[in-house]
User: What shape does this take?
Amino acid sequence: MSFEILQHDAGGRLGILYTRHGKVETPAICPVINPNKLVVTPKEMFEMGVQIVMTNSYIIYKDPELRDKTLRKGLHDFLDFKGPIVIDNGAYQWHVYGSIDVDALEMFNFQRSIRPDIGILLDYPTSHDMSKEKATETIKVTLENARKCVPLISKEDGILWTGVIQGGYFLDLVAKCAKEMSKLPLDLHALGEPVQFLIEYDFKKVADMLVVARANLRADRPLHLFGAGLPWTLPFFVAMGADLFDSAAYALYAKRRVYMTPAGNFTLDSLTELICECPVCTSYTLNELKKLEPELQEKLLAKHNLYVTITEMRRIREYIRHNRLWELVHVRAHTHPQLLKALVYSLRKYRKYLEKRDLFTKRRAFFWLDDFCKYRPEISRALSRVKKVFGSSTVPSGLRYTYPFYQFESYTDKLPFKLERKKVNELEIVRTIADYQFKKKGIGEKIIPNGAEIAVSKKTGRIRSILYEEKLLFVLRAYDYILIPQIEGGKILKENIPFPRFRVIASKRGIKSIIERKCLPAKYIIGCDKELVPGEQVLIVDETDDLIAVGELKFTPEEAVLATRGFPVKVRGIAEEETI
Assistant: This one.
């Protein structure tokens, strides 16, 4: 597999896409290049920090001169771009400008002959105004095309292949297409035909299509959202599960003298001053920019728009690293009412989907910025767990320092949970945390016996660790106040939590890697508790349920089992070798 997952936040994730021409940090956007009109050249894009670009088969294939030149020189030399290149299959253009007069194998062979890093198998676009009968035909043809091409894919070519998900706004068809496409040995997937909804700012429909596609695709493969390029929409779409984007908006808007920002767009004539620190905006005054020749002005505006777009993508990645993506989504959602509407709608409708993908706890405090924050997965999941374990929606006093019930900053005194007002001792606190964390009332009494020594910090008065018979069982992590099992605590947990709950199952090679390298590569994971979420504490066991180590899950369970790259579990304590 060419994709490595690194970290989760909200419904999004950080990753690395490996290609012949280097690594791409995801989420990432591919600026679309028109070889006939290079407003910003690919070489300039590379120098600006663009990781990956996209160009179109339709334009190259339909022009004999361009086609011959590309076949002769290869795509990278033709475009003069050192990084990875995606080649679109041209289906959208054929659909818009005329009937598709090239078949799937012909387009596959053409793409392979010009050697992109990522090719896209020919699909049949589902228009927004199609009947369901016609839409059904589009996914049938799209899947048939993919099945024809798959036997011809060769690893020696070094090309990653994308299978497109069609179905339009018929969500059952999107789900069906995604499930069937996942069965094929492909590298990536793309969601086709959201463009009309993006143009109309119908972000709710795009979110529906995106979530349904993501939920029904193989979790270890990246998902490309076609045509989304407005900077202020990108955090939302990442939070809903998109890994890659493409857009020509930077150039199309520049042609219309539109100045893009992360908080909306302005016409150049409407501005009184430039509100950006990119190289364009620090090299020219607004008056100088307005007085330039149209062609140069268009180029500089396109460069500015591109800087804004790739900077927003960097910002998204950094916010994920700091567990703050929801805060960025919240800020950007207030750019336009339709985006805010889509956010609230998605938080409510896709609560379970987001709860499965978002981190169990976070290093940063929860920022309570608006009433609809009560729908965020950190809150909804925590309250659901409290009710399921304790039989009441009131949060027990023992959880008063546990994430997210303590680690938040709020604009209001009204919160969506009620905290029990009851004095509890240290033993009751740690047992309550254990019940909550391991989702079973009474488990705390079993894993933290009477007589356990509870160490308290003299400086903060907070619990630091739990020992029993001079053996360290658990550490309470300061920033989220949850139990971090040590190997002795893991042994007690294993005896009291039935298989396969809270387990990650390692192969024999995985066990060897844990012992020798203190890590568990994804390719050695053969099973995982399906109810876990990223960030939960786990027991790493072999196929006979012998405890090997304890650690923290970084991926979703499905990702952990399917992935062949990366390290889904942060290994912490390892059992003594003679006991393995």
Q: What stands out?
A: The chain has a mean pLDDT of 94.
